[in-house]
Amino acid sequence: MLSAARQSLRSYSSVAPKTLKIGLIAGDGIGKEVIPAGRQILEALPSDFGLKFNFVDLEAGFELFKKTGTALPEETVQILKNECDGALFGAVSSPTTKVEGYSSPIVALRKKMGLYANVRPVKSVDGIGRPVDMVIVRENTEDLYVKEERLFQAPDGTKVAEAIKRISQTASSRIGKMAFEIALQRQAVRDLGGASLHTVPSVTVTHKSNVLSLTDGLFRETIRELYDNSQAQYASVDLREQIVDSMVYRMFREPEIFDVVVAPNLYGDILSDGAAALVGSLGVVPSANVGNNFAIGEPCHGSAPDIEGRGISNPIATIRSTALMLEFMGYAAPAAKIYAAVDANLSANLIKTPDLGGNSKTQDVIADIIRRL
Q1: Percentage of the chain with pLDDT > 90?
Q2: In terms of Cα–Cα distance, which of 258, 273, 267, 266 is closest to 183?
Q3: Which pick of 103, 168, 243, 351 has the fewest CB atoms within 10 Å?
Q4: Which architecture characterizes domain 125-138+165-279 according to CATH?
């Protein structure tokens, strides 16, 4: 999937025109307001890309769980697997206390679809936020997110809670490979004249192996071994590493030094949300859940019940996630067109939602970006 995207940077005509079927999962809250933005952008792509789209609306989320007792219907999973070429996922509400029988549908969907990587580009636009151009590649299937917890009573009668942190060689190796491939793909864009803060591709492995020598140690060692054994492929990539606490410090002090960052699930989750502060808002940061044969674009923000229904949610994270989905499907040229239109909107700094200090509506921003396509 990545190599196809890299090839299409050089020759879009190598990808035969076709009709793509995209699953739309609005989920909860403002997901219902921003997912239509992704559809509108795809429908507005210039015809010279030779792409047409069919869409299917699918259900998942906490609101669905409250109605039916099911957060992720099997029908949704089967339609994605058997009928769709890609998908967009809006947002999901996450209750802060345990709700019997409920678990996150997006976490379950990642596992069922084999989407082992969460890819989050964080890039500043001239004059907005800190100078940053990085991609955080988060392992998506294990670590503390295996959700194997137990509550028991200590000998003194007090409660103790435990959680399993699982790191495997298999998952670490495939996420490391994904990170190296993304670094090469980004360099291919730069070689074609794409603007960037970086001149050399690099991958920074983030871990806490000085304390967690077995789990984080295995993550670190596996990626280093992959690099050492694949010099013919990755010789041009500079491999670095950073302890997670100093990674947080350096990411905020000098974000411009990081190109691709690869991390276990929990650290990747925290780093990617924190990195959004460097570019103004979670409302502009995209992500994609990626496996070997499928990609789901997913904005990084939550369901935002405080602004639900007011028409002021920022659609840019979803629009960029739509482009990211296309990129991982092998359609890098239309993805680049969408990125450029979004960057032009942000650079103009005129039509923006309240999270960016403006007073525009969601649909105003969508219309402006479509105009710039």
Answers
A1: 73
A2: 258
A3: 103
A4: 3-Layer(aba) Sandwich (3.40)
Of 52-56, 137-141, 187-191, least confident by mean pLDDT is 187-191
In total, the chain counts a number of residues equal to: 373
CB 279 within 8 A of CB 132: yes
Any residues with CB less than 8 A from the CB of 8 and at least 6 apart, and which?
14, 15, 330, 331, 332, 333
125-138+165-279 has the same fold as 1-115+291-373: yes
Q: How far apart are CA 212 and CA 208, in angstroms?
A: 6
Where is 80: in which H helix or E strand? helix 74-83
Q: Report the pLDDT averaged over residues 233-247.
A: 96
275-309: burial string, b at 16+ Cβ within 10 Å, e else: bbebbbbbbbbbbbbbbeebbbbbbbbbbbeebbe
Protein fold of 1-115+291-373 = Isopropylmalate Dehydrogenase (3.40.718)
Please report the pLDDT score of residue 99 as a whole number.
86
Q: Are 275 and 255 in contact (CB under 8 A)?
A: yes
| Beta strands across the sheet bearing 128-139 | 51-58, 18-27, 86-91, 295-297, 288-290, 117-125, 128-139, 260-263, 202-207, 238-243
Q: Residue 280 contacts by C-beta under 8 Å, 6 or more apart in sequence?
A: 128, 129, 355, 356
Threshold 0.85, pTM exceeds:
yes
Rounded average pLDDT over 351-367? 93
Per-residue pLDDT tens digits for 270-299: 999 899 888 878 889 999 999 999 999 999
The pLDDT score that the predictor gives to residue 14 is 44
Hey, what amino acid is at 300? C
Dihedral sign (CA 278, 283, 284, 290):
positive
Domain boundaries, the chain: 1-115+291-373, 125-138+165-279
